[in-house]
Backbone:
């Protein structure tokens, strides 16, 4: 089930794209007319050029941005670079029990689960997330596109550590149920200071288990030393 | 070699061509919403579009100043 705002966006997106394309076509028509006819620069030409170079292209950009920004939050968009394929596959797998897949089944933001968990929740979060996304695209086309999946798994890592704020944005640390959990209560200071990650092994992570090296079984020597 | 400002007509023609390229890049990103198309549209496309509008506004401003200067007092 979608909430009202998501329904509006889902309904409006094709409308906005169509309107953006209509604005672009009208602007292109005016500009081609100007280039072919070469009219004198009187007030009428100025108004037409203001529409062709200003009003209509700005309309195209604004409506296009609104629609495409929404599209960039979709899991399918994040998975469109091949190195993200395994993450997309796992997140979309209805039988997977990974943390990412369980969030992918959330009825409110499941289809945008990559964005929901990896976005910057700071004051300028949306902008910073988009800037980070542009850097991802740049690095993909200049370097990572040639990687095999094994190389990608080995060499591509998060630029900054995953912050607990990305979890606590939804899972409030002030909730009595959260505070009542003994592990949370015991590690509260460390969690607040980000010395312990929610996604640590043994806590709730790793969120993408297939991307981590399997923990080797303890050797006989280790087992002996532990005795 | 003499270097001068382009004529009004040349500047407006350049602005029109730049805006057409910008519009084409933006429409490409709507029809094929891939990461590359979107980044190109939102950086090169919108940059060219802004530049063409500024060029037009510059030409209009120069035209207004010239017309004021040529009016009798």
Residues:
């Amino acid at each position: 089930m979608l909430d009202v705002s998501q329904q509006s966006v889902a309904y409006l997106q094709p409308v906005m794209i169509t309107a953006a394309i209509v604005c672009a076509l009208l602007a292109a028509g005016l500009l081609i007319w100007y280039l072919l006819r070469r009219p004198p620069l009187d007030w009428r030409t100025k108004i037409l050029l203001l529409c062709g170079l200003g009003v209509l292209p700005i309309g195209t950009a604004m409506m296009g941005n609104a629609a495409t920004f929404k599209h960039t939050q979709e899991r399918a968009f994040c998975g469109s670079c091949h190195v993200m394929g395994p993450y997309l596959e796992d997140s979309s797998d209805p039988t997977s029990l990974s943390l990412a897949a369980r969030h992918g089944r959330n009825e409110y933001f499941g289809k945008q689960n990559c964005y929901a968990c990896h976005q910057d929740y700071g004051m300028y979060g949306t902008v910073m997330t988009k800037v980070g996304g542009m850097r991802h695209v740049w690095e993909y086309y200049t370097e990572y596109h040639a990687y095999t999946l094994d190389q990608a798994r080995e060499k591509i890592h998060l630029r900054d550590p995953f912050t607990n704020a990305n979890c606590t944005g939804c899972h409030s640390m002030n909730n009595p149920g959260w505070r009542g959990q003994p592990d949370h209560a015991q590690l509260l200071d460390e969690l607040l200071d980000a010395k312990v990650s929610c996604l640590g092994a043994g806590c709730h992570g790793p969120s993408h288990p297939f991307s981590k090296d399997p923990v080797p079984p303890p050797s006989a020597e280790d087992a002996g030393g532990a005795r | 070699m003499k270097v001068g400002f382009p004529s009004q007509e040349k500047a407006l023609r350049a602005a029109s061509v730049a805006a057409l390229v910008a519009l084409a890049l933006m429409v490409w990103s709507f029809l094929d919403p891939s990461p590359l198309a979107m980044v190109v549209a939102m950086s090169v496309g919108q940059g060219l579009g802004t530049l063409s509008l500024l060029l037009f506004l510059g030409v209009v401003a120069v035209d207004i100043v010239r017309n004021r200067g040529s009016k009798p007092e």
The CA atoms of residues 140 and 146 of chain A lie 9 Å apart.
